[in-house]
Design goal:
alpha/beta; 208 residues; 8 strands; Rossmann fold
Length: 208
């Protein structure tokens, strides 16, 4: 693990970095434009980090999952009034849900940290836990043909080693779920950065 990666594992340093680049305003847009939560919805935030999303989703049944114990300890200390937090891998999702079905699963900056196989397995696992109207909202950096140089360099130097093209990103959603909305956003941060938003739902079962 590099020095940068070790530093960003610290929840306070990670929060300061996010403050500098303007992540808080991005959070509000994601919730208002893509999550559109209803009171009582079960929202599962995969790789929830410090748990800040929970405060913006106070009317829901928020569940934060992360495998970094430092992040979960911080979340439990500061945001326990807004949801529950679990230090575990996504493969333990059933335990965290305790029988609940997911109305929205958040994958914010997650997929580009995973290999294709890991990402597909995770998406399929989440898909099995979605309610009938449930959805996955994912946000990740991508490479695009007309991307600015700074944005491309930032994506290439991300801690996540699996930043993909749009077509490569779409291929992760070709089994249990299908993408129903997607778009590029380059207006969210104080630095040039290309986000790709995907909203996906359960793939309809084909009739006989």
């Amino acid at each position: 693990m590099s020095i940068r990666e070790r530093l960003l594992e610290n929840p306070n340093i990670f929060a300061f970095f996010n403050l500098l680049i303007g992540v808080k305003s991005r959070t509000k847009v994601i919730i208002n434009e893509y999550v559109s939560p209803k009171s009582g919805d079960v929202i599962v935030d995969i790789a929830c980090g410090r748990g800040e999303f929970s405060k913006e989703l106070a009317s829901t049944r928020y569940i934060g999952v992360d495998n970094n114990p430092s992040y979960i300890r911080y979340a439990e200390k500061h945001y326990s009034d807004f949801g529950s937090f679990h230090c575990c891998d996504v493969s333990d999702l059933s335990t965290s849900l305790n029988g609940k079905l997911i109305d929205t699963a958040l994958l914010i900056g997650v997929l580009h940290h995973l290999t294709n196989s890991q990402a597909r397995d995770m998406i399929n696992d989440i898909g099995r836990h979605l309610s009938d109207d449930g959805k996955i909202v994912s946000v990740d950096p991508v490479f695009t043909p007309d991307q600015g140089l700074v944005s491309r360099l930032l994506a290439a130097s991300d801690r996540g080693k699996y930043v993909r093209s749009i077509d490569e990103h779409h291929s992760l959603f070709d089994e249990s779920v299908e993408i129903c909305q997607s778009e590029i956003r380059e207006d969210w941060l104080r630095i040039p950065y290309t986000h790709y938003v995907c909203v996906s739902r359960k793939r309809a079962k084909s009739g006989i």
